[in-house]
UniProtKB/TrEMBL annotation:
SUPFAM superfamilies: MetI-like. PROSITE patterns: ABC_TM1. It is found in: Cell inner membrane; Cell membrane. It comes from Microvirga mediterraneensis. This is sn-glycerol-3-phosphate transport system permease protein UgpA. The chain crosses the membrane at residues 12-32, 67-93, 114-136, 156-180, 201-227, 266-287. Part of the ABC transporter complex UgpBAEC involved in sn-glycerol-3-phosphate (G3P) import. Probably responsible for the translocation of the substrate across the membrane. NCBIfam families: PRK10561.1. Belongs to the binding-protein-dependent transport system permease family. The complex is composed of two ATP-binding proteins (UgpC), two transmembrane proteins (UgpA and UgpE) and a solute-binding protein (UgpB). One of its GO terms (cellular component) is plasma membrane. Keywords: Cell inner membrane, Cell membrane, Membrane, Transmembrane, Transmembrane helix, Transport.
């Protein structure tokens, strides 16, 4: 029989949810509301003087050619990272779900990269692929590939995608593995008895049953790429070369801290927040229709 907690009053339930409510208000709603208010102001670099300017900051944002360039870069970067991090994680999860000798150690090693901070992950990959000092970048130049992420925008984007994908594969792997282990083995065995091969069983049985997990990870990965990759970009390329790896979130930082325009930076952060909310709503409205619960 299912047991439920019954409270005689509202005081104890309120106290139990109060810590989470406080964290949400302090670290999300207050900064978001402050950013919205700052987006209507013109402030100096130190935030000591301000002037209400209405929608001028928003107009200035959409008059910048660099903003549209950063938007295109963000679309390319997020698409590549989302695809590769999900695909590689699913591949690793399907292999780790098999009965392998030393499988527990293999799973542990795959989870470890998620504990690495984004900035550290970026530095590690930059050291490995440095054109003259890197253990992988230098051999590429010796073999004639002309690898230089410090000067070539395409090389820099490739390095960023590799860094961000490596950082997030562990998170996706963990959820995919849990989803695979929740699938009844009898269903897969029934498909094998009916004559379905491994690939056919995967695409017709396993992957449809993983669709709720895949949808959840798609939403989380998009949010990760839009916001949490800032540390990787700052450590690896700093938005360069010549702004070719500047994403929307990094442009918010660059215009606010380096450019000293706090109002313009706040307006960009509000626009970015609206884009992510709209993108998430579209995913729940249209992509979730294909999810089989």
């Amino acid at each position: 029989m299912e047991k439920r907690a019954h409270f005689s009053g509202w005081t104890l339930p309120l106290l139990l949810i109060l810590p989470q409510m406080a964290i949400t208000v302090i670290f999300f709603y207050l900064p978001a509301s402050q950013a919205i208010w700052q987006s209507f102001l013109r402030e100096d670099a130190f935030g000591l003087a301000s002037e209400f300017v209405g929608l001028e900051n928003y107009i200035a944002v959409f008059e910048q050619p660099e903003y549209y360039r950063a938007m295109i870069t963000t679309v390319i970067f997020s698409t590549l990272v989302a695809f590769f991090s999900l695909a590689v994680a699913l591949l690793f999860a399907t292999q780790a779900d098999k009965s392998l000798r030393g499988g527990h150690g293999f799973k542990t090693l795959l989870i470890w990269p998620y504990a690495v901070a984004p900035a550290i992950a970026g530095v590690l990959w930059m050291f490995m692929f440095h054109p003259t000092l890197g253990i992988l970048g230098r051999p590429l130049n010796i073999m004639g590939f002309r690898w230089n992420p410090m000067l070539d925008g395409n090389d820099a984007m490739i390095l960023l995608v590799l860094s961000a994908t490596w950082k997030h594969v562990s998170y996706n792997f963990l959820f995919f593995l849990a989803g695979l282990q929740a699938i009844p083995k009898s269903v897969i065995e029934a498909g094998a008895i009916d004559g379905a091969g491994p690939l056919r069983r995967f695409w017709t049985i396993i992957f449809p049953l993983l669709s709720p997990t895949t949808f959840f990870l798609l939403v989380v990965t998009i949010v990760y790429v839009f916001f949490e990759t800032f540390g990787i970009i700052d450590a690896v390329t700093g938005g360069g070369p010549a702004g070719q790896t500047t994403t929307l979130v990094y442009k918010v930082y660059a215009d606010g801290r380096s450019g000293g325009d706090l109002g313009l930076s706040a307006a960009q952060s509000v626009v970015l927040m609206v884009i992510v909310i709209a993108l998430t709503a579209v995913q729940f409205r249209y992509v979730e229709r294909k999810v089989q619960y």
